[in-house]
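User: Sequence in, structure out. Go.
Assistant: Echoing your sequence, followed by the structure tokens.
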Amino acid sequence: MPKEYFFLYLIYGSAFINMGIFALQKKDVEVSNLALVRSLKYLGFFGITHGISEWVTMLVIADLYPQQYVLFFILKQLLKAVSFACLLRFGVSLLPVPDKYRKPVKLIPMVVFIFWLTFFMLLMLRHGWDYHLIDPRYNIVWLRYFMGFPGGLVSGIALYLNAGWMEERKLGHIAKKYKSLAYIFFVYSVLDGAIVREMAFFPASIINDTLFLSIFGFPIQIAKAAVGIGINILLIRLVQTFGWEQKEKLHQLQKKKIAYEERRKLGMEIHDGIIQGLYAAGLKAEYLNRNKPEGKQGEILQDIKRDLNNTIDKTREFLAASSLEVIEVEDLIDSLQQLADRFKMSSSLNIDLQCRVPLLTLGQLSPEKTTQIYYIVQEALSNVIKHAQATSAEVVLEAKYDYLLVQVVDDGIGIENDKGNDAGHMGLEAMEHRAKKAEGTLKVENTKKGTMMELQVPWEVSADEKEH
């Protein structure tokens, strides 16, 4: 390989290592529970291991340790395999698959890697340590076609699907960045997974780096380095947008504070001004009525007093209604946290609230449905305390692709061991009734350690989406 390729692999490896370091630094971003942020660690491991593998190639080109050539080759293949497995893990972690298939799907990258590693070692033990260097067909087929290409392709598809989710949340500017990153992963899957060295089998005999050079006039390593830099830039821009979520949270809190202050001010003005004035007028009417006016005047004074009292009562009802906190979807987490705190104070049950509902991707739910969710959780926790004989419970809220998932899990005796408990069954019926009102589905079942209540409430379609 020409010495000029030394600098290409230096740039290529550096681009991916920098991307990996950035991804690992951002994997614990506190302002977001987005699937992309939770999966960044796999992208980080991919970038670092992939970059180091290219640096190993750089050492081979430099011919610094010629006696260790076979060892460097084996090390490079191992690093490549780990990097492609991490890339595939990144992709499957982002895919919006149903919960029952999520765990098996996440195991695919590990299974593929173990399969590759097993036969990689067996072939070397049987034919010698330099077997894969002499005959690279196994690595080309498995590493490139079955790991590198699917890894980039699945990552691109997952990012594109997440972009659609962002568009449904009216976050077009973020969706565009998701799509841009998806497109560049599609390109990467072709460059590093489908275009390989020329070999005497299909498709390597046709689609190879020689064909690329003849078409574009420059080596494929330049394109790979450009893709690595592109992934770096697009990933940085995308992650930076997640700071919007924190700003939006502060904005929402400020709006709620202003609205609360306005309601409180209005209530004080009505109470101190209008109600007191009406009350004073009522006292005057009562004073005049005590003088026992005759005929029509007495009846009119009685009517005036009655009307004033009715007006005072209606005004107080209005103030009471306007001061009630409506449980909006944005308030649900705080309301449930307060509920959990109250139950913990009044019982020995340890309650843990786990919320994976980022404001950035929060869907539409009416206050009526959100309120039903609140009371379903309240009833579930109440049943745990009264009937389950549990020591701990976990409440989980998670924003799925098309619905809100709510779970209450305890470590109690289970529902089968609670037979004959009419109060418990009445509570279950009440939860089912509320679930129907929220247009959701409720499931209560035993687990290995207790009972799980699971509620799924589909996101609503906004008025703007209905028009489209």
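User: And one key feature?
Assistant: The first strand starts at residue 350 and ends at 356.
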